[in-house]
Amino acid sequence: MKIFSTILFMLFCTVMQGQEKARKLDSLFNSLYANEKFNGNVLVVDSGQIIYNKSFGLANIKENKPLNSQTVFELASVSKQFTAMGIMILKKKGLIAYSDSLRHFFPELPYHNITVKHLIQHTSGLPDYMELFQEHWDSSKIAVNKDMIRLLATHQPKILFPPGTKFEYSNTGYALLASIIEKQSGVSFKEFLEKEIFKPLGMARSTVYSRRLENRKIENYAYGYGKNKENKFILPDEDPDIRRLVYTLDGIQGDGTVNASIEDLFTWDRALYTEKLISKAEWEASLETPIFQNNKKSNYGFGWMLDSSKIFGRLMNHSGGWPGYITFIERHIDHNKCFIILSNLGNGNMPYVAVRNILYDIKPKPGNNFKVSADSLRQYEGKYAITPDFVIKVWLEKGTLNAQATGQDSFELVPEKTDWFSVPIIQAKLQFIRNDKGDVTSMILHQNGQETPGKKMD
Question: In terms of CB atoms within 10 Å, which of 121, 215, 270, 392 comes out highest?
């Protein structure tokens, strides 16, 4: 009887803790929504159970259709974990090896010594395909993966570094992986994922979808929005600065274009604890990360950013961003926790740190209270060229410093110390560099362990 009472008491405490966490989550997202900083769906899992599942705002502003837990979102780069799983399934079937050369599948490409594994772990050194399309593509046409491969073969942009020597995030690599899946399976990328992943797991609201290219409509679909200069919600297609990007690249698959509901992603999270798709040994192997010279280690596995800590245990996550959408999924696999945030407000907030702290009852540390006056912030304004075709614009608006990269939504810069700003939405930092006279002349983007310089344009 005593043991039974103890179990009941522990159960009661667990329920009460879950309710308190849900209350805090509700307060967080209601506040963001009220201030037009968030529009989307949130699902939080604690000890394997959903403790919070709520929708905020509209899926379709024109038709006044609200979001719900079955609404389908464009996942952007969160798609990469499904592409990686597709490759793992091909390996399981004996149709590829991770050591296979890229030229084995596409001999027309001029890149030697790149393997499938290099593509999966972002260590191939391949240049970004977006620059190719900006220079060599008719903007009245929608490109597909075959067009990307043809441009690479025709123009042969130089490799950024010898394969396997460093990490650099590559959308090109994951688009090539989708094409490898098609070549080796004999079916489309969409058909393969549906047959091998979505249908076996019961992910009925998941698909591969290029909205502008395809002649089909998904019911209960979340259209992605941004805000114009008048602070009104608009579709990316209505924005003159980015409509070419979302139109011409709509058919490129593998680095993005997986669409799913938030409850389907919960199903995905649960399935990854099982052997429904691949064996436990194969899954554990996918969590290994490459080691470079001087024992420098990457933190990217097969479609996931990987980390670990005493508090969180093994942690894996991935963010996604595309005009109109910000997405995020994080799994704490030693503690059976997970949270998923899907937003169809491209320049909204992604409060993943706050959600993580609520899950673990961590009180946020007091901020450094580092304040910068508007006059001081103005000195950082300008355009910074990462490459000739990829520019980060920085400007001051209502006392806040903002930035926007070519073809992407804007984000807020949070001051940390002199000349250093954090970018929570993309898990990065910006460092501004001065010359001998004290003038800001360049910046360095710190992200995923990499440092990418950008010179200030005159």
Answer: 121
